Amino acid sequence: MAIEGEKHSPLEQFEIKELIPINIGGTDISFTNSALMMVVTVALICLLMLVGTRRRAMIPGRWQVVAEMCYQFVANLIRDTVGNEGRKYFPFIFTLFMFILFGNMLGMLPYSFTFTSHIAVTFAMAMVVFTGVTLLGLAKHGIHFFSLFVPPGVPIWMWPLMIPIEIISYLSRPISLAMRLFANMLAGHTLLKVFAGFVPLLGAAGILPLAFVGALTALELLIAFLQAYVFTILTCLYINDALHLH
Predict the structure, then answer these.
(1) What is the pTM of this model?
(2) Which H helix or E strand runs over 216?
(3) Does pLDDT of 6 surpass 60?
(4) How distant, in Å, are the alpha carbons of 140, 144, 171, 175 from that of 150?
(5) Of 26, 35, 178, 188, which residue has the fewest beta carbons closer than 10 angstroms?
């Protein structure tokens, strides 16, 4: 019974499986289902952009429309949050948005794998953003960058209280970025799996759970987009902080 319950566990879909075993010097760097989905994600993004920008017709085709919509969406996001100074960071932000978006959406396909539901993946992306933003701020402002931890208008006598709070808040950025994406993907997919499991068990009476699963799937698709958007807009805001401080 325990084995059977584990087999049908809603958390089974998050199990990382070894596809190609690779061991170098005692270090396991095997190619897994998570790595496979990342490769597929990058390949599909490249394919979309190559096909969408190949002709660049005055009257765009469907793929050109999709590519231009993605481009314009991120470009507007950067302009609204960072300003014209943020245009030089467009390639990084665009890549980040598309990678998370496609990873989330591909995870909605049956028998696929959602690599954004693993904290190791989301934390790695968050640390890249955090490290890059910190280096950017130090390169642009030097030692003055640390004035970011001193809220404007705060009297000096409150600095011993406010500065540690600001530092903790700053250091928690990668944790909050990683946890938000990871938790939403994990919870959403788990909930879908649980309710989908009720459908075959209830037989003819399973029409109601089936309808609910359909609605829940649509909601999860929306959340998949929103989480990519939230991760990206927070990255833009962090870049804006690094460039303009307060």
Answers:
(1) 0.87
(2) helix 207-244
(3) no
(4) 18, 11, 15, 22
(5) 26
Tokens representing residue 192 in the block: 């879908």
Count other C-beta atoms under 10 Å from residue 61's C-beta: 13
Residue 31: beta bridge partners?
20
Give the 3-state secondary structure of residue 54: coil
Alpha carbon dihedral 29, 227, 241, 71, in 10-degree steps, equals 90
Q: How far apart (Å, rounded) are the C-alpha atoms in residues 63 and 57?
A: 11
Structure tokens at 24: 């170098």
Could you list the beta-strand ranges (E) of 121-202: none
Token digits for 67?
């590519």
Q: Could you tell me if 245 and 145 are in contact, meaning their C-beta atoms sit under 8 angstroms apart? A: yes
**123-163 pLDDT, tens per residue?**
999 999 999 999 999 999 888 888 888 877 778 888 888 88
CA-angle at 131, arms to 127 and 132, nearest 5°: 115
- How far is 108 from 106, CA to CA, in rounded Å? 5
Nearest CA among 175, 169, 196, 52 for reference residue 125? 175
For residue 154, the 8-state DSSP code is -
The whole-angstrom separation of Cα 74 and Cα 100 is 13
The Cα–Cα gap between 18 and 38 comes to 14
DSSP state at residue 61 = -
For the chain, what are the domain ranges?
2-244
Transcribe 159-186 into DSSP letters: HHHHHHHHHHHHHTHHHHHHHHHHHHHH
